[in-house]
Design brief:
There is one protein chain. With 186 residues, this protein is mainly alpha-helical. It has one domain. The chain is globular. The two termini are 26 Å apart.
Length: 186
């Protein structure tokens, strides 16, 4: 597995890595909003991907996600390169499994009222997950919730990143999108 992140020389997370962790956690929340059983699927997928050295159980996946500084229960220590890369691999793999559902949510061909209902359910579930898991006193969380309430494009951008993260080359597209400073998507 190639190294996709860097830390400064003291081992502290750079602002670039902290921002990437925020984006990754939002993408994991989007997956959880699509699939209600996603948290169990993360553990199964990590075993299937042979990530047991990094994530021996679902608790370790959760601990790695808690390095996101805007989480309600954030960890102050820096995330290891191995854990960060494993989160990216896991996220890319999960998007491959959920690609059909993601395509339905992104679909704009023809008018299907069922797609609108599914998209609204996704938006509602995503906002609930942010409110439940993130520190609501943080300005960034309020910004995300405001975007989530007022704009469908925010959700479409999340879904588009997930869609592009699947398939061959998806892992590299994902890592590029989360580290791209010009990418003000999220």
């Amino acid at each position: 597995m190639t190294s996709l992140i860097t830390h400064n020389f003291l081992g502290f997370q750079t602002s670039k890595v902290r921002r990437a962790l925020e984006k990754i956690d939002l993408l994991f929340l989007a997956i959880e909003a699509i699939d209600i059983n996603a948290s169990q699927s993360f553990d199964f997928a990590s075993r299937k991907l042979d990530l047991l050295t990094v994530f021996p159980n679902s608790i370790e996946i959760w601990k790695s996600r808690c390095h996101n500084p805007i989480r309600r229960s954030a960890r102050n220590s820096s995330i290891s390169t191995e854990s960060f890369n494993a989160l990216l691999v896991l996220l890319s793999s999960m998007t491959g499994q959920l690609y059909p559902q993601i395509r339905v949510l992104l679909s704009t061909r023809g008018y299907d009222p069922m797609n609108d209902i599914k998209f609204e359910q996704f938006r509602t579930r995503f906002s609930e997950l942010i409110s439940e898991r993130m520190n609501l006193r943080r300005g960034a969380v309020r910004k995300y919730l405001n975007k989530a309430e007022t704009s469908k494009t925010f959700h479409r951008k999340l879904l588009m990143i997930l869609a592009l993260s699947s398939g061959p080359g998806g892992l590299y597209r994902l890592s590029s999108s989360i580290f791209d400073p010009l990418n003000a998507m999220l």
